[in-house]
């Protein structure tokens, strides 16, 4: 479960990420796809059959030799997740017909939002590129978000990949670039990189939905640049105050894995000139 600010958030954006695969400025369906995120998510009870539970798979490219920085991997995961949510294929076609990904995406969006991150390297990473989704290559890191669907019907090229295992150490990245939204992760929770990837992906969706459509369009045009940073105890207190004030977006976890139900895992704040809380 998640919280969205009751007010629209506004953020300046900078051109620091790869160009999206579509042009939001001339895309007539962008506002409709943004509206899906703005309306929020369903709370449909889970089906009796666990294999029918809806989830979005995310795969992180974690090579054994010279792996990318943890912060870069999480940024790529956030960018890939929100890029898939705005991909024209999750919306309607030019004649109003359903896009090829619209039905499974909406079925997931109307249920309890779940994401499951896995890791891949070598041939398995390359094979995953042939499964419907969106890959982001960012700051030496790569992540791919896939079209959601029932967990029991996951493509074997994805289901064979490990959920746990290799993790990445916390790194010390430079200050976020001016104007880039920051997704602050509660460091004290000590989430694995896979769990954190799912959480920042959710934060990116909530943040996009809390923006007005023109600001969201500008963010999309720049390729959804963002920064992921760890928040210490002092920073976290300030972030929670911003959530209470309605100037930040919080992700509350349902508690299925790793953290207690209701834990606030990530707080998303708009970019500012100083990019500080």
CATH-level-2 architecture:
3-Layer(aba) Sandwich
Portion of residues within helices: 25-40%
> What's the count of strands?
10
CATH topology term: Bit1
- Give the SSE string: EHEHHEHEEEHEHHEHEE
Which superfamily, in CATH terms, is the homologous superfamily? Bit1
Briefly note the structural class of the backbone: alpha+beta
Organism: Rhodococcus gordoniae
EC number: 3.1.1.29
Biased composition (Basic and acidic residues): 1-13, 30-50
Protein name: peptidyl-tRNA hydrolase
Description:
The protein is an alpha+beta fold. The chain has one domain: Bit1. Helices cover 31% and strands 18% of the residues. It is built from 8 helices and 10 strands. It has a 5-stranded mixed β-sheet with strand order 1-9-10-7-8. Strands 2, 3, 4, 5 and 6 form a 5-stranded mixed β-sheet that branches. Strand 4 (133-138) and strand 5 form a beta hairpin. Helix 1 (30-39) crosses helix 6 (193-210). The radius of gyration is 17 Å and the shape is globular. It starts with a strand and ends in an 8-residue tail after the last strand. Its EC number is 3.1.1.29. This is peptidyl-tRNA hydrolase. Belongs to the PTH2 family. Residues 1-50 are annotated as: Disordered.
Outline of the structure:
The protein is 31% helix and 18% strand. By secondary structure, the protein is α+β, with helices and mostly antiparallel strands.
Features:
Bit1; disordered C terminus; single chain; alpha+beta; 277 residues; 5-stranded mixed beta sheet; 10 strands
Break the fold down into its secondary structure elements and pairings:
Blueprint lengths: L1 E2 L26 H10 L14 E8 L8 H17 L15 H8 L5 E6 L1 H7 L4 E6 L2 E6 L2 E2 L5 H4 L22 E5 L6 H18 L2 H9 L5 E5 L1 H13 L3 E4 L11 E6 L8
Parallel strand pairs: 2-3, 7-8
Antiparallel strand pairs: 1-9, 2-5, 2-6, 4-5, 7-10, 9-10
């Amino acid at each position: 479960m998640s919280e969205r600010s009751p007010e629209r958030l506004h953020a300046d954006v900078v051109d620091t990420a790869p160009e999206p695969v579509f042009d939001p400025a001339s895309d007539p369906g962008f506002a409709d796809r943004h509206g899906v995120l703005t309306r929020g998510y369903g709370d449909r009870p889970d089906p009796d059959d666990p294999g029918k539970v809806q989830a979005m798979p995310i795969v992180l490219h974690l090579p054994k030799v010279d792996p990318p920085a943890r912060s870069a991997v999480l940024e790529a995961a956030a960018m890939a997740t929100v890029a898939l949510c705005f991909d024209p294929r999750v919306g309607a076609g030019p004649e109003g017909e359903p896009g090829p990904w619209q039905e499974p995406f909406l079925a997931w969006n109307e249920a309890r939002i779940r994401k499951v991150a896995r890791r891949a390297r070598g041939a398995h990473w390359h094979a995953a590129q042939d499964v419907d989704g969106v890959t982001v290559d960012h700051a030496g890191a790569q992540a791919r978000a896939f079209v959601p669907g029932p967990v029991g019907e996951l493509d074997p090229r994805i289901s064979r990949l490990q959920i746990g295992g290799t993790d990445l150490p916390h790194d010390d990245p430079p200050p976020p670039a001016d104007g880039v939204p920051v997704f602050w992760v509660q460091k004290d929770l000590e989430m694995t990189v896979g769990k954190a990837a799912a959480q920042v992906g959710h934060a990116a969706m909530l943040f996009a939905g809390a923006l007005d459509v023109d600001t969201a369009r500008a963010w999309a045009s720049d390729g959804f640049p963002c920064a992921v940073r760890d928040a210490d105890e002092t920073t976290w207190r300030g972030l929670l105050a911003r959530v209470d004030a309605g100037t930040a977006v919080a992700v509350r976890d349902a508690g299925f894995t790793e953290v207690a139900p209701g834990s606030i895992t990530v707080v998303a704040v708009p970019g500012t000139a100083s990019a500080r809380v």
